[in-house]
Amino acid sequence: MIVGRVPPHSVAMSNHSEAPVTPVEAFEPPYYAAVFTAVRTQDQSGYSETAARMEDLVKDVPGFLGMDQAHTPGGLSITVGYFRDADALTEWRTNAEHRAAQKRGQAEWYESYTLHIAKVERSHGFTRA
Length: 129
Hints:
This protein is of the alpha+beta class. Helices cover about 25% and strands about 35% of the residues. This is ABM domain-containing protein.
């Protein structure tokens, strides 16, 4: 399993295996989590470039807090994006370039996916010293 995290204002690494494996920090609630779980198709032509562009683009959304990602060798991927408020989520959901990537994903890259939006009411974290 490959796991990575994308904080809102960092440079995304091209090789996630070199990035430190840590979850996005716990924020003061309330905030929102968008959980996107997908099974990908065999043909992933253009996916990596589009995913990198979406990571760069979402960082510019005011209220974007960060993102956790995990991928299995069998093609299951989970991305959790964290947003300060519903307005930030709406801005991301309605971004024209993001909408175009969604349409391409449905046409080419995903066998299936689910999206869950949740309001986080409790949050805490732990880091070993």
